[in-house]
C-alpha cells in the first residue's frame, strides 16, 4: 500500500476531494462517512481528537514539534506585546535602612552645618525658601516665586499658599522672619550667620518677605536654601538655650519626611532614628514610607553592618573600604562629583617658589592621570582649573600644562637651574632647588604627595614631604600659612565664586587664598563677577580670570574627587550625579522608590 506524507494525511483529514487516493477497506468507508456528515471543511474538536490515531509515530512527533514551535512563538509575541504596552511605575511601599556615621546633635537648620549626620536629617525634615534639584540647580521650595530688583540688592519671595508644618500648624512669613533673625542673633552662634551679615529682612504680608543687601551679590540665592524653623515651636526658647532644646532631636519641620521615633543605648547615644512621610508636605507623598537611619561610631563598623545586610545604604564609603563591600554583596556605588579641587598651592612669598619657571617645570612633571588612578582609585576627574565642570564659569578650553618630563627638565635648564655630575638636585650658583611639600595625614593626600615627590625627583628637584595630623593641621599649618608648597583641597560650595579662594584680600588672617596670590586684574574681575546675576556675563568674567590665574600658575590643579554613596540595588530613582555637601544626595528623595507597579500604556 502506498505511504502518504504527513501533509497529505492531514489534508486528507481536513478537506474534501472529488478524486482521492483509494485507501480501501473499512478506513475508506469511514472517511467517506465523515466527509459526508461534515458541515464545513475545518475539522471539529472531535475530529482533531482523532488526528494522532491517523498519523504514524514519526508524523506525530513532527506534529508535536510544530505545535511546540507555534506555542513558543505565541508566548514570545505575547511577551513582546506586554513589554511594549505595559510600563513599570514607582509604587508606594518598602523600607530603607541607611548607615550614618556620628551622633546627631542638632537636627536644626540654624545649627546643623558642621555635622554630616545633622545636615542629612535636617535636609529630609526641613524645607527652605529655595532648594537645589538633582542637577544642583536652584528651584523654588517653600517660595513659589521670587523677584530681584533692578539694582540687584532686593530679593522678594512669595510663599506657596496653604503651607503647613508637620504638626498641622500654618507656615507663614512670620516663620521666615523668625528664622533669619535667629540666625543673625549673636547669642545663637549659628554657622549661617556670616552668610546673612548685613542682610535685612522685612515681612510684607503673610506670604511675602523681602531681603535687602548692602550691595549686589550674585550668589545670594544659594544662601536661601537653609531650612525654615517654626516660630510656634522655637519662639519661646531663649537664644542662649537653643542648643539645649529637645526639638533639636525631635523636630517639627515642613520637609518631605517627619520625625517618627528614635532609640538610644544605655549610654544615651542614639542607635536608630526613624522618619516617615510628612502628611502636610506640599511636594507630594514620597514613595518610601519609612526610612530608618542606623547610627555608627565609625566607617569600619558601618561597613560590617552593610556586609551582613543589616543596612541597605551607606552614607559614604571610604576608598580603602570599598573593596570589602564589593566582595560581600551587590550594591550600586554612586560616584557623586564634589565641587572641590585638590591642588598644590605654592606660597607666593617664598623666595624660591616665586620663580615662575620653577612652578612651570613642576607642573609639567606631574602625571595627573596616574595620581587619579593610584591615589583615588579612579574615583574622580582630572582638574585643570578652579571651577569644576557643571558650574557657571567652567573653562573647557583652559590652558593645560601637559605631562612631559623632558619639557620640564628643559624649562629648568633654560632658566639656569643646572644639574651637575655628582649632585642630587639642581643648583643655580650655590643655591639648591629644594623645598618642602606639606599635607594632612589622610590616605588620599599621603599617596598623592608620594607620587609628586617621585615626579619632581625625576627632574632633579629635592622635595621633603611633611605629613601633619588632622587635629593640628588647621591651627599649626593653615592659619599661619606655615608651608612652602601645600597639598590640600578646597571645597567651593553651592556657588562657584572664586573670590574667597583667590582674591588678594583673602590672603590675610584666616583667608582661604592658600597661595597668597595677588593680581590686580584678577581681583577686579572677581569683584565685578560676584555682582552680576546674568550667568553668561558672569561666566565671561570667570573665564578671563582663569586665563590670568593659569598663566600666573600659583597652584597646580590636580583632581576633583567624587563622593561614593553605596545604594542597595533595590532602591531606584536616584539620579543625582554631583553634590555640594553630603546631604545633597537626598535631593529628589521623593522620587526614590523600592516597590513598582505595572500599568497599560
From TrEMBL:
InterPro entries cross-referenced by the UniProt entry: Peptide/Ni-bd, SBP_5, SBP_5_dom
Alphabetic keyword roster: Membrane, Signal, Transmembrane, Transmembrane helix, Transport
Residues annotated as domain Solute-binding protein family: 137-504
GO MF, any single term: peptide transmembrane transporter activity
Record field: transmembrane: 61-82
Pfam families: SBP_bac_5
Cellular component annotations (GO), alphabetically ordered: ATP-binding cassette (ABC) transporter complex; periplasmic space
A GO BP annotation: peptide transport
Sequence similarity: Belongs to the bacterial solute-binding protein 5 family.
Name assigned to this protein: Solute-binding protein family 5 domain-containing protein
Taxonomic source organism: Candidatus Kerfeldbacteria bacterium RIFCSPLOWO2_01_FULL_48_11
Amino acid at each position: 500500500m502506498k505511504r502518504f506524507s504527513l501533509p497529505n494525511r492531514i489534508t486528507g483529514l481536513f478537506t474534501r476531494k472529488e478524486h482521492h487516493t483509494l485507501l480501501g477497506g473499512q478506513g475508506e468507508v469511514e472517511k467517506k462517512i465523515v466527509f459526508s456528515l461534515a458541515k464545513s471543511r475545518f475539522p471539529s474538536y472531535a475530529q482533531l481528537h482523532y488526528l494522532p490515531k491517523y498519523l504514524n509515530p514519526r508524523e506525530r512527533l513532527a506534529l508535536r514539534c510544530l505545535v511546540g514551535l507555534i506555542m513558543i512563538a505565541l508566548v514570545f509575541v505575547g511577551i513582546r506585546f506586554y513589554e511594549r504596552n505595559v510600563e513599570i511605575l514607582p509604587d508606594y511601599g518598602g523600607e530603607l535602612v541607611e548607615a550614618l556615621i556620628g551622633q546627631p546633635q542638632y537636627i536644626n537648620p540654624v545649627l546643623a552645618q558642621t555635622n554630616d549626620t545633622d545636615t542629612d536629617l535636617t535636609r529630609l525634615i526641613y524645607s527652605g525658601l529655595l532648594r537645589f534639584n538633582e542637577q544642583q540647580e536652584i528651584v523654588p521650595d517653600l517660595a513659589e516665586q521670587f523677584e530681584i530688583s533692578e539694582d540687584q540688592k532686593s530679593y522678594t519671595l512669595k510663599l506657596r499658599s496653604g503651607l503647613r508644618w508637620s504638626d498641622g500648624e500654618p507656615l507663614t512669613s512670620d516663620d521666615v522672619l523668625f528664622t533669619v533673625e535667629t540666625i543673625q542673633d549673636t547669642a545663637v552662634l549659628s554657622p549661617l550667620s556670616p552668610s546673612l551679615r548685613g542682610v535685612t529682612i522685612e515681612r510684607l504680608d503673610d506670604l511675602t518677605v523681602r531681603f535687602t543687601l548692602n550691595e549686589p551679590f550674585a550668589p545670594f540665592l544659594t544662601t536661601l536654601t537653609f531650612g525654615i524653623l517654626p516660630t510656634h515651636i522655637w519662639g519661646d526658647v531663649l537664644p542662649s538655650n537653643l542648643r539645649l532644646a529637645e526639638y533639636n532631636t525631635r523636630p517639627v519641620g515642613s520637609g518631605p519626611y517627619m520625625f517618627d521615633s528614635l532609640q538610644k543605648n544605655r549610654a544615651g547615644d542614639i542607635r536608630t532614628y526613624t522618619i516617615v512621610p510628612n502628611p502636610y508636605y506640599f511636594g507630594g507623598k514620597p514613595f518610601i514610607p519609612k526610612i530608618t537611619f542606623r547610627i555608627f561610631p565609625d566607617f569600619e563598623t558601618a561597613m560590617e553592618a552593610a556586609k551582613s545586610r543589616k543596612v541597605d545604604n551607606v552614607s559614604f564609603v571610604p576608598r580603602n573600604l570599598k573593596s570589602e563591600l564589593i566582595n560581600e554583596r551587590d550594591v550600586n556605588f554612586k560616584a557623586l562629583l564634589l565641587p572641590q579641587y585638590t591642588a598644590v598651592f605654592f606660597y607666593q612669598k617664598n623666595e624660591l617658589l616665586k620663580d615662575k619657571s620653577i612652578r612651570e617645570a613642576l607642573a609639567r612633571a606631574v602625571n595627573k592621570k596616574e595620581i587619579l588612578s593610584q591615589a583615588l582609585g579612579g574615583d574622580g576627574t582630572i582638574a585643570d582649573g578652579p571651577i569644576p565642570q557643571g558650574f557657571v564659569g567652567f573653562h573647557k578650553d583652559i590652558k593645560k600644562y601637559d605631562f612631559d618630563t623632558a619639557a620640564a627638565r628643559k624649562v629648568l635648564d633654560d632658566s639656569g637651574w643646572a644639574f651637575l655630575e655628582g649632585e642630587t638636585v639642581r643648583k643655580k650658583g650655590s643655591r639648591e632647588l629644594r623645598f618642602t611639600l606639606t599635607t594632612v595625614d589622610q590616605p588620599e593626600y599621603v599617596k598623592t604627595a608620594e607620587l609628586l615627590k617621585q615626579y619632581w625627583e625625576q627632574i632633579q628637584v629635592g622635595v621633603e614631604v611633611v605629613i601633619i595630623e588632622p587635629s593640628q593641621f588647621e591651627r599649626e599649618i593653615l592659619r599661619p600659612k606655615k608651608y612652602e608648597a601645600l597639598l590640600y583641597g578646597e571645597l567651593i560650595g553651592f556657588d562657584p565664586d572664586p573670590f574667597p579662594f583667590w582674591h588678594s584680600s583673602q590672603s590675610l588672617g584666616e583667608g582661604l587664598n592658600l597661595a597668597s596670590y595677588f593680581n590686580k586684574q584678577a581681583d577686579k574681575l572677581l569683584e565685578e563677577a560676584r555682582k552680576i546675576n546674568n550667568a553668561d556675563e558672569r561666566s565671561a568674567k570667570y573665564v578671563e580670570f582663569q586665563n590670568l590665574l593659569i598663566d600666573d600658575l600659583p597652584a597646580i590643579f590636580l583632581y576633583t574627587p567624587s563622593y561614593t554613596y553605596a545604594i542597595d540595588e533595590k532602591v531606584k530613582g536616584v539620579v543625582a550625579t554631583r553634590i555640594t555637601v553630603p546631604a545633597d544626595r537626598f535631593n529628589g528623595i521623593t522620587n526614590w522608590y523600592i516597590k513598582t507597579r505595572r500599568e497599560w500604556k
